[in-house]
Amino acid sequence: MAEVLVLAELDPAGGGVRKTTLEALTAARALGEPSAVVIAAPGTAGGVKDALAEYGAAKVYVAEAPEVDEYLVAPKAEVLAQLVADKSPAAVVIPSSPEGKEIAARLAIKTGSGFLTDVTEIAADGTAMQVAFAGQTIVHSKVATGTPIYTLRGNSVTPEPAPAAGTEESVAVSVSEQAKQARVVDRVVEQKSSRPELTEASIVVSGGRGVASAENFKIIEELADALGGAVGASRAAVDSGFYPHTFQVGQTGKTVSPQLYVAVGISGAIQHRAGMQTSKTIVAINKDPEAPIFELADFGVVGDLNTIVPQATELITARKG
Amino acid sequence: MNIVVLVKQVPDSGTERKLDPADNTVARASADNVINEMDEYAIEEALTVKEAQGGEVTVLTVGPDSATDAIRKALSMGADKAVHVSDEAIHGSDAVQISAVLAAALQQLEYDLILCGAEATDSQMSVMPALLSERLGIPQLSGARKLTVEGGTARIERQTDGGYWAVEAPLPAIVSTWDTINEPRYPSFKGIMAAKKKPVETKSLADLGLDASAVGLANATTQVLDFAGRPPKGEGVKVPDEGDGAQKFVDFLASQKIV
Ligand SMILES: Cc1cc2nc3c(=O)[nH]c(=O)nc-3n(C[C@H](O)[C@H](O)[C@H](O)COP(=O)(O)OP(=O)(O)OC[C@H]3O[C@@H](n4cnc5c(N)ncnc54)[C@H](O)[C@@H]3O)c2cc1C
Ligand SMILES: Cc1cc2nc3c(=O)[nH]c(=O)nc-3n(C[C@H](O)[C@H](O)[C@H](O)COP(=O)(O)OP(=O)(O)OC[C@H]3O[C@@H](n4cnc5c(N)ncnc54)[C@H](O)[C@@H]3O)c2cc1C
């Protein structure tokens, strides 16, 4: 069976592989037999090998060296390009994080290939699906030149276990001077929240301009906590200083695709929809019955968020007893 | 300090955007075209660096003739001059091909710093700094929410999920900017008038020494096979809050087995 390289994305906090990697391994199986590639600081691969094997990695290529962590993106792309040259895989699948897309871009130039970003599905014939223009358009596309390179958008494929051998093969790493120009001098975590990570949460409660103040975002947080979800915000809420930018959902913020998205005091501008349109169930709370957010809501309540949200929090908390 | 800012014209992201069924490319002719909003932050950053350290800001665009509107906007904000690469043969090019055109145009310019937006709002690819870094052999500092340029070194705060990475590299370098980096200025009346007289050099592929076979729909490294509008969602339920809105909301969540 054809070999497909899957670049593993690791949790920067040391929590193993990210779910996006398991999704990429699952999607890659449509094209052939996945081999996982771990490019990381020394001592990383040991902790993630089992998970990679469980989700279908027949092989695990381990390329460990301090340089791949000390410099931005370029060294990882070099190592991956070397593997592509050695193994001639049928395709390369990479999780669609900012870094993943940049690695894909560099790999495309190095290998003389085309690349598709943010694909949501890959078919056996190599055709991929992309969702464009804030979810308004669905596109089928394919790579016409070289080794097809895909970046897979998070939350578009459900990870499915498919236990495989996970045979480890270590890869010698040599990084060129050229790739050692952009040095990462510090990694700073500013917001540490006890809530689930926004892009991975299965429930997201977002507040918009209608929430009206930073203090009042408390009612959004309380509803999110009652539901065990993450908190999001519209750009208007962020620009007004109600909530930090890290939590912005939309075109220039995060893309989320949870089981449940609750939009509170958000009108539903196209740029906001761009980040939440593919949520499975959407609920809107808005005092304006004409707000465009209702067009995509499965359930909408027309009324004042200041009364509805705290009441809902109380009812949910009571149900949980 | 010679600064080049990459500027792309895109269909307004607040409107309904379409692909053209004739060849599956972005329907630009019928669209409400604007400067890519993200590029305004790159222009503002370029002007800030120039104001502090002196130098010249050149705008570089690859796009159809109508893209001059985006160039004028950049010039009216305060950029000094522009290069507009326009050639029928470029129509339908993908990211790999556009990066080849931008790289060729950049090689004809002098630059210490290249700035661009963190993403184009039409494609949302966020790949241009990586592609150009690879082609030009200069470092990539992408996704900046803060930039400092000092003594031949550029340093950014690269925006991440829960904070930032501090990354630095020697000049020349390519830096992309998010909308958290600054507040772009509005063009003044004086700026708008002055922009009309600023030099805009138009270049063809031949001027860049590129062959038509390097670009265009027929030679693209990726192909759009077909497209369709997303199927509309079925009508949802909308209830007025008559004191029982919260209860109905929670009942709905229960019916979906969410609570
Ligand atoms: C290039 C570009 C990128 C953008 N990127 C993003 C992005 O990433 N994310 C994003 O969100 N936006 C983005 N925007 C902005 C977007 O166009 C909208 O301006 C923004 O989403 C509006 O936020 P909002 O819905 O909170 O505010 P508004 O549109 O002002 O809506 C507020 C809503 O709250 C309701 N309301 C007010 N008071 C109450 C109350 N007491 N009870 C109930 N309801 C109430 C109102 O009826 C209204 O519908 C972008 C814009 C551009 C040009
Ligand atoms: C919905 C959609 C999906 C697409 N998917 C793919 C894909 O998967 N693979 C692929 O190869 N192509 C794809 N394309 C085509 C690709 O987006 C265009 O070829 C584009 O010009 C390449 O850059 P970008 O805008 O995507 O770059 P981005 O990396 O998103 O743009 C970053 C910055 O680069 C600068 N820039 C980009 N283009 C230009 C330009 N023409 N002139 C000057 N500066 C510029 C701007 O400063 C911009 O802010 C897609 C296009 C669309 C509309």
TrEMBL record, chain A:
Keywords: Electron transport, FAD, Flavoprotein, Transport. Heterodimer of an alpha and a beta subunit. The electron transfer flavoprotein serves as a specific electron acceptor for other dehydrogenases. It transfers the electrons to the main respiratory chain via ETF-ubiquinone oxidoreductase (ETF dehydrogenase). SUPFAM superfamilies: Adenine nucleotide alpha hydrolases-like, DHS-like NAD/FAD-binding domain. Belongs to the ETF alpha-subunit/FixB family. Its cofactor is FAD. This is Electron transfer flavoprotein subunit alpha/FixB family protein. It comes from Blastococcus deserti. The keyword Transport applies. Residues 4-188 form the Electron transfer flavoprotein alpha/beta-subunit N-terminal domain. It holds the Pfam family ETF_alpha.
TrEMBL record, chain B:
SUPFAM superfamilies: Adenine nucleotide alpha hydrolases-like. Residues 23-212 form the Electron transfer flavoprotein alpha/beta-subunit N-terminal domain. Signal peptide: none annotated. Transmembrane segments: none annotated. Keywords: Electron transport, Transport. Gene3D superfamilies: HUPs. CDD domains: ETF_beta (cd01714). The electron transfer flavoprotein serves as a specific electron acceptor for other dehydrogenases. It transfers the electrons to the main respiratory chain via ETF-ubiquinone oxidoreductase (ETF dehydrogenase). Heterodimer of an alpha and a beta subunit. This is Electron transfer flavoprotein subunit beta. It comes from Blastococcus deserti.
